[in-house]
Design brief:
Elements: H1 2-8, H2 17-28, E1 51-54, H3 62-70, E2 75-78, E3 98-100, E4 103-104, H4 107-119, E5 124-130, H5 149-156, H6 160-181, E6 185-191, H7 208-220, H8 232-235, H9 250-278, E7 284-287, H10 308-312, E8 319-323, H11 341-346, E9 350-355, H12 382-399, E10 402-406, H13 416-432, E11 443-447, H14 462-465, H15 469-474, E12 480-484, E13 498-501, E14 506-507, H16 509-519, E15 524-529, E16 535-536, E17 539-540, H17 543-549, E18 559-562, E19 566-571, H18 578-587, E20 600-602, E21 606-611, E22 615-630, E23 635-648, E24 652-659, H19 669-673
Parallel strand pairs: 1-2, 1-10, 2-5, 5-6, 6-7, 7-8, 8-9, 9-10, 11-12, 11-13, 13-15, 14-16, 15-19
Antiparallel strand pairs: 3-4, 16-17, 18-19, 20-21, 21-24, 22-23, 22-24
Helix pairs in contact: 2-13, 6-9, 12-13
């Protein structure tokens, strides 16, 4: 019974974990290029993963920061911003630093940094730079064609005067912080658009600067001068039901490509300007690339995030961030990623997982009475919060990512238990994070940004292809990796037995050749969903679907075809269930760790499960290991086995270390701490 209580308990106790990690490292003896411990933020030559704290926006909570410092959290993100948030609260506890045309007062930035250092003298600081319009900028008397970038980024992104003035502010900001705080600043983040995440809320509306840029862009593509921005009736049109016809709707397709390119171009403009000052001394990052999260009616292709393959390849940016998905984040959910997180590794970029989940003490309804997004799926009590925060930690830890604990508008970590829990996770991060690991997923999912220009962005079915599909993928009982189709030529596919294409509506000649040569071979199973290649080489034709699946578009049932060197599975409806995905994976020869439909993460040395329901769980391993230890409790679960059982008392997240090799006799965390019972 004591073991069960430990698996559920939020009270951490193990000590001497660094000694354990040293013992483990002595016996592991295997390293590979993509181990979790080697994932890094590739700026300034510093190879590291951040376990950080993001200070609250509207208030400065010195007591919370002090507790994070005591827990060993050395990296702190601050947001000395100029604008109001989407819920009407200031983004910074200090006044703006851009106070007028060419007028900068950076003393509030200094006070912010000095306040952090007064509480946490050893802190290394990541500084956010706000590139949105200050309140005065769009309101200047006599200033024509000025809009608020927070709400209408697309209408302002090509504005030459805005670009010049904001570039001047950015570089002045960086010159100031680099001259005064160079030794303690370990990174910068660039913010713009709605919620600071480069989200364009203008729905493609025109402005003089955007119209001029649109005409230049079309001419650069070898297209006729469009003269004007297409009206909403044209840019919203989808002549083929859910799909846009490449010929009949070409103007709409080109316009949305331009609109997304424009946001990407603005980010790259600022990144290049920043590096003129930073010279790559420290990592530079931003929020961008929310393909999976924006794939709901009314967001794609409107918000500007589809140019991420180009932005992610820029040598001026070192890492990208995103909150855990707002879909499926309540207890029992999988959380999940907003973006094609494994493509960042292919691009050589770092990823920071923002844990901004609402705790019981969170100030998540503002003074204006507006709930912060995610409030409705917040954790209701400390027990749920412990399980939920452990879930997000485990996902980042196993994935090899950085993370930061976001306090947003304050009060989120007022619980003693939650602070103890985060302190314990920081110890695990330090002690086990350097263990070499390698990915074990045998399922790869390739999502296609290009295809999202060819669909009705307001159709209800849109949410089923990516946004909702994450639920089934997370619960199929085996890990999977998320890539952009643009990386198909660069991903090593030898490990994958099942490749899934959830939204591959557009196939050109190059993509078709890659599919034939790299994917549809080697006894692999390929899962096509809904309408693969319905637009092939610039032509819409439902018969194209049959060329890849040997089934007609609209076939009502899932079909399987053995095609010599590969197997084709065609699912005519999106949002496949976890059970169906598990069956397809199992028939493809994929190792299934668990048959219970609950979130699971795994690499070579760690497995995590999350549950809202109590009961026995059986985990099947791909090979025998010397010992299995549940790290949150320190309990030895099994020895010398390829299968183990645990009793879960919900809500719970369990994180298992799989000790390989001749290390069965090293002390457990419980034995070292003297808490064995």
């Amino acid at each position: 019974m004591a073991g069960r209580q430990l698996l559920r308990s939020g009270l951490p106790y193990p000590r001497y974990l660094s000694l354990i990690a040293a013992l483990i490292s002595c016996v592991l003896g295997r390293t590979v290029p993509h181990c979790a411990a080697d994932a890094s933020l590739n700026g300034g030559g510093e190879q590291t993963r951040w376990f950080a704290y993001r200070c609250p926006y509207a208030v400065f909570e010195s007591s919370t920061l002090r507790r994070f410092a005591e827990a060993g959290v050395e990296v702190v993100h601050i947001s000395p911003l100029n604008t109001l948030s989407s819920v009407g609260e200031p983004y910074s506890p200090y006044p703006p630093s851009w106070i007028g045309p060419g007028q900068f007062d950076f003393s509030p930035v200094d006070r912010y940094i000095e306040a952090v250092r007064a509480v946490h003298p050893q802190a290394r600081i990541i500084v956010g730079v706000d590139l949105n319009t200050p309140a005065w900028w769009p309101r200047l008397l006599g200033a024509m064609n000025r809009v608020d970038s927070f709400c209408e980024l697309g209408r302002l992104a090509a504005h030459e005067r805005w670009r010049a003035e904001s570039r001047e502010y950015l570089q002045a900001f960086l010159r100031h912080t680099e001259s005064r705080f160079r030794d303690i600043i370990c990174g910068y983040t660039l913010f713009g658009g709605m919620t600071l995440e480069w989200q364009d809320q203008s729905l493609g509306q025109e402005s003089p600067s955007k119209r001029a840029a649109w005409r230049r862009w079309m001419l650069a593509q070898g297209m006729p001068d469009p003269v004007d921005i297409p009206p909403m009736s044209l840019r919203e049109r989808a002549s083929r039901g859910f799909f846009r016809d490449p010929l009949e709707d070409s103007l709409a397709i080109h316009y949305w490509k331009f609109s997304n390119w424009l946001i990407g171009d603005l980010i790259l403009f600022y990144a290049a300007a920043a590096q003129e000052v930073l010279h790559h001394r420290v990592p530079l990052g931003t929020f961008y690339g929310y393909l999976w999260e924006h794939a709901v009616p009314g967001r794609i292709p409107y918000e500007g995030h589809l140019d991420f393959p180009r932005v992610w390849m820029s040598t001026d940016l070192d890492f990208f961030m995103a909150p855990g998905s707002y879909f499926d984040r309540a207890i029992g959910g999988a959380g999940g990623y907003m973006l094609c997180v494994d493509s960042l590794r292919v691009a050589g970029k770092g990823y920071v997982h923002e844990i901004d989940h609402r705790t019981p003490t969170a100030r998540s309804v503002t003074s204006l009475g507006r709930p912060i997004p995610g409030h409705e799926s917040g954790f209701q009590d400390d027990s749920a919060a412990v399980a939920g925060l452990r879930r997000e930690f485990a996902a980042a830890f196993i994935g090899g990512h950085s993370l930061w604990w976001c306090n947003l508008f304050g009060g989120w970590y007022d619980s003693e238990l939650l602070l103890q829990t985060i302190g314990h996770m920081r110890t695990l991060w330090s002690s086990y994070g350097s263990i070499p690991t390698w990915p074990v997923a045998e399922v790869a999912v390739f999502a296609d940004p290009e295809s999202m220009y060819y669909i009705d962005g307001r159709a209800d079915i849109l949410a089923d292809f990516l946004w909702r599909q994450r639920a089934g993928l997370a619960r199929m009982g085996t890990p999977y990796e998320m890539y952009s189709l643009t990386d198909l030529s660069r991903v090593d596919l030898s490990r994958f037995k099942l490749v899934i294409f959830p939204n591959l509506f557009v196939i050109d000649e190059r993509c078709g050749q890659l599919l034939k040569e790299r994917v549809c071979t080697d006894k692999r199973t390929v899962l096509w969903i809904y309408a693969p290649g319905i637009i092939t080489n610039g032509r819409y034709d439902e018969r194209h679907v049959e060329e890849w699946t040997e089934e007609r578009f609209g076939t009502p049932q899932v079909s399987v075809k053995e095609l010599g060197s590969w197997r084709s599975v065609f699912a005519p409806k999106p949002n496949l269930s976890a059970n169906l995905l598990r069956n397809i994976a199992q028939e493809a020869g994929v190792h299934i760790y668990s048959s219970v439909e609950e979130p699971l993460w795994a690499n070579s040395h760690f497995i995590a499960i999350h549950s809202a329901h109590s009961g026995k769980r059986t985990i099947n391993l791909p090979r025998k290991v010397a010992r299995v230890i549940e790290l949150f409790s320190g309990e030895v679960v099994a020895n010398n086995t390829d299968r183990f059982e645990v009793e879960v008392e919900a809500p719970s997240t369990l994180l298992f270390f799989l000790a390989h090799g001749e290390n069965a006799n090293f002390p457990t965390t419980t034995q070292l701490s003297g808490n064995a019972d």
